[in-house]
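User: My instructor asked us to take a sequence, write out its structure as tokens, and then describe one feature of it. I'm not sure where to start. Here is the sequence I was given:
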Amino acid sequence: MNKMISVTIVERLAELPWYTEGPAMDAQGNLFFTTLTGGIIFKMNPEGKMSHWAYAKCPNGQYILPNGDHLICDSGQAGIARFGADGGFKSYAIKDHCDGQALRAPNDLTADTDGGMYFTDSVRQSGMVCYFGTDGSQRIVGSGFDFPNGIALSADGKRLFVAESYRNRILTCALRGPGLPDGKWEEWARLPEHPSGDIIQNLPDGIRMGKDGLLYVAHYGMQAVQILDEDGTLVDTIRTGYPLTSNLCLLEGEMIVTGGYGEPGPGGVSSIKL
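Assistant: Let's start with the prediction itself. The structure tokens for your sequence are:
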């Protein structure tokens, strides 16, 4: 397929003093997003009313479990916090260590069909991809990455994808079981580079696997979401309007995008029709 640059309708849902991250929607149609240094997890109901839903030191990536609990990466606490559906803090699902290795900055996460969680620990040159299961198991799935960031599973759960931010690429690894890599990590896609040559203007961030089998990549400094086909080929670029585009979640016919104009802010949340 040929690459396209989509002309899209972008609707601003919220403008905030803080750079935003971690968009997720629950079964009732409530949208949740995090604010990193703002320390607030926001809730936006289907009518568009916003409220402070929960608080954390530096909330980042977010995943809503089938029972309504939220797992939220807290980069400021070296852990993943569990909140109830009412926003009340319950416990840490994992904190400080995974499989004996020190955690430093959990960033984003995704779940397999068994309820196990894969997550990234975002550190320059020595970042990790980790796993913890509902049975209490913990595993290091990969290490030595240069700021692993967004993370996603293939539809069949047999392949893991990770954005390696400072190398401007998407890595992949086959899985032979929960948290068990089958072979080596490989470069699956290299993303477009900013014409300035400044590495900060690249940096793939959050990623999501669509029901269409395409991988959607929030490309931090490129003001865009890049769309890759099943072979890792770039097939489309969607402009977000955010100079710094952090993350996304996919809904029916719609993409929710977070990001902002600088860090620690300001930032916002937008809807892009697909």
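For the description part of your assignment, you could build on this observation: The mean pLDDT is 96. Try explaining in your own words what that tells you about the chain.
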